[in-house]
From TrEMBL:
GO terms for molecular function: DNA binding. This is DNA-binding transcriptional ArsR family regulator. Keywords: DNA-binding. It comes from Actinophytocola algeriensis. InterPro entries: ArsR-like_HTH (IPR011991), WH-like_DNA-bd_sf (IPR036388), WH_DNA-bd_sf (IPR036390). Gene3D superfamilies: Winged helix-like DNA-binding domain superfamily/Winged helix DNA-binding domain.
Length: 180
């Protein structure tokens, strides 16, 4: 995963044709090979590959001679790309929001995304925990549930908040699931 923070990288990435080229460069390939798969000329593919190389999204991993011509072999630098919310920022600036509002939840998710992108994935021990589940909350019990959840979390923060040791962030998101 590559965390995209620069406008130049985002601009290079956010072109539908370049995204298709990137998909085909998950494994090392030449512009000719990608062109065949996308029904495009090698020159057109090379134009996009060159922009992606300049942005650091693709690298040339080798080259080979084909009928007297040197052909580059390219590969995407990551299997997935994650755009930083800071590329756009919060339109109108951040403002204090009620912790039960959708706006607050979106800002929380952006903060989590930024924190996760900064984690050193090469560390031998990377203690994380992800929990996801669905619950049904009849309108009459929503306040009771939120109060109980808030109380439980406050107890955990009080118990572990001032303790010595590694720092962790705990983020809880509760939101309605749209019916499919």
């Amino acid at each position: 995963m590559l965390y995209v923070e620069g406008f130049e990288q985002a601009e290079a990435l956010l072109k539908p044709q370049r995204v298709e080229v990137l998909r085909h460069l998950a494994e090392p390939s030449s512009c000719t090979e990608v062109g065949v798969r996308l029904d495009q000329t090698p020159q057109r593919v090379y134009y996009h590959v060159k922009r992606l190389v300049d942005a650091g999204l693709v690298t040339q991993v080798s080259e080979r001679r084909v009928r007297g011509i040197v052909e580059g072999i390219y590969q995407a630098t990551a299997k997935s790309y994650w755009l930083s919310p800071q590329l756009i920022g919060t339109i109108g600036g951040r403002r204090a929001r009620d912790e039960l509002s959708l706006g607050y939840l979106i800002e929380l998710v952006e903060d989590v995304q930024q924190d996760l992108a900064k984690i050193d994935r090469t560390r031998p021990e990377l203690p994380t925990l992800g929990v996801s589940g669905r619950i049904a909350l009849p309108p009459a019990h929503r306040k009771e549930f939120f109060d109980e959840l808030r109380s439980t979390l406050q107890d955990l923060f009080a118990k572990y908040g001032g303790a010595e040791g590694d720092q962790f962030t705990l983020a809880i998101a509760v939101y309605p699931k749209e019916q499919e």
